[in-house]
């Protein structure tokens, strides 16, 4: 079988390994390191309590990948004399001996959410990076995470832990939209189209996982101020899920279920307050990206307004979380451009 693309033979020295890292390469490598250093702590804790052997193997595979990604990122940083981020560590941010906080089933849902977050970093990085070693690294991360996602979905479906996205009819013919296509509040409101259904399902799936996690974190976090923020985040997430579910239920379409019952009653923290706050800030930031994707393919005014309201409340949560991170000296600074004003000579 012939390859789909014809080869292009251009010799270029502009992508060799002696080139300096670009801002995109630095930024995406930094985000990869930070995310996987946090994941390493989470997965090591999950492995302390997992009983299901299939889910245990899945967690071990995820931890192996996370550790490998960190080592490869660190190797590129060392080559460039780039300071290794502090990130998160077993010594400072994990209490391995903490009691079980989640049931085994939750680990699979969590891994799907985490794999989505990883894919969002890696697939965006690939068009933006040019140095061969960095490009090959992100392609490796993307391919490996896709393989992990396949295993996650096999377990979710094989063990009956999730329902597939809703089934809708195959169209009878090609049609073009009419002027009422955008209606959502008044007039003739059309049914949801396939992409709207897709993103409602995806946002529900993300948010039920996120709600269970923030509920668990609110039980165990030590700081009262962070606990209040987590409770606020839980209420906000629950409200959003109810709104998205209502859109699908109104058209007799099924939705993913809540996962709250997979959180135990433990109040003993397995993670540092720093890790939990960073994690929720990162998860909520990912939700903002997901809502942007949802808005991009939406065609109804009511759904557009719904996502806009969600975005505003999420942005407020992320800002408040960031303030606490900064006040506690927990937020590491990503690489940044030169401050030219400080270099300019004063007259």
Written description of the protein model:
This is DUF3231 family protein. It comes from Neobacillus rhizophilus. InterPro entries: DUF3231 (IPR021617), Ferritin-like (IPR012347). The protein is mostly helical and 347 residues long. It folds into two domains: 23-158, Ferritin (Up-down Bundle), CATH 1.20.1260; 184-327, Ferritin, CATH 1.20.1260. The chain is built from ten helices and no strands. The chain has helices at 23-49, 53-79, 90-93, 104-125, 132-158, 194-220, 224-249, 273-297, 301-327, 340-343.
Number of helices: 10
Compressed to H and E, one letter per element, the order equals: HHHHHHHHHH
Low-confidence stretches: none
What is the CATH homology-level superfamily of the largest domain? Ferritin, core subunit, four-helix bundle
How confident is the prediction overall: mean pLDDT? 91
Q: How would you characterize the largest beta sheet? A: none
Q: Strand-residue fraction?
A: under 5%
Helix and strand topology:
Blueprint: H1 23-49, H2 53-79, H3 90-93, H4 104-125, H5 132-158, H6 194-220, H7 224-249, H8 273-297, H9 301-327, H10 340-343
Helix pairs in contact: 1-2, 1-4, 2-4, 2-5, 4-5, 4-6, 6-7, 6-8, 7-9, 8-9
InterPro entries: DUF3231, Ferritin-like
Protein name: DUF3231 family protein
Pfam families: DUF3231
């Amino acid at each position: 079988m012939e390859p789909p693309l014809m080869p292009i033979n251009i010799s270029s020295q502009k992508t060799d390994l002696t080139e300096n890292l670009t801002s995109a390469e630095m930024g995406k490598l930094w985000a990869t390191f930070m995310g996987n250093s946090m994941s390493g702590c989470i997965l090591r804790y999950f492995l302390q309590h997992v009983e299901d052997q299939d889910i245990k193997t899945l967690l071990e595979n995820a931890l192996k990948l996370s550790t490998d990604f960190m080592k490869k990122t660190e190797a590129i940083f060392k080559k460039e004399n780039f300071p290794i981020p502090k990130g998160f560590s077993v010594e400072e941010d994990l209490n391995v001996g903490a009691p079980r906080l989640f049931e085994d089933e939750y680990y699979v849902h969590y891994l799907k959410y985490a794999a989505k977050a990883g894919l969002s970093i890696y697939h965006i990085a690939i068009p933006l990076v040019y140095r061969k070693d960095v490009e090959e690294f992100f392609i490796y991360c993307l391919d490996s995470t896709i393989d992990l996602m396949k295993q996650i979905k096999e377990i979710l479906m094989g063990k009956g832990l999730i329902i597939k996205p809703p089934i809708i009819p195959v169209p009878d013919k090609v049609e073009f939209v009419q002027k009422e296509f955008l209606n959502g509040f008044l007039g003739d409101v059309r049914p949801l189209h396939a992409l709207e259904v897709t993103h409602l399902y995806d946002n529900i799936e993300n948010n039920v996982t996120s709600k269970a996690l923030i509920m668990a974190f609110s039980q165990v976090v030590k700081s009262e101020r962070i606990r209040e923020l987590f409770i606020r985040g839980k209420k906000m997430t629950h409200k959003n899920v109810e709104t998205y579910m209502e859109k699908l239920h109104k058209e007799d379409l099924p939705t993913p279920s809540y996962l709250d019952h997979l959180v135990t009653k433990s109040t003993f923290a397995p993670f540092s307050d720093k890790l939990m706050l960073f994690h929720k800030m990162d998860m909520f930031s990912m939700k903002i990206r997901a809502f942007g994707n949802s808005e991009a393919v939406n065609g109804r005014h009511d759904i557009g307004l719904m996502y806009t309201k969600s975005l505003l409340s999420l942005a407020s949560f992320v800002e408040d979380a960031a303030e606490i991170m900064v006040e506690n000296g927990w937020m590491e600074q990503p690489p940044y451009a030169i401050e030219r004003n400080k270099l300019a000579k004063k007259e």
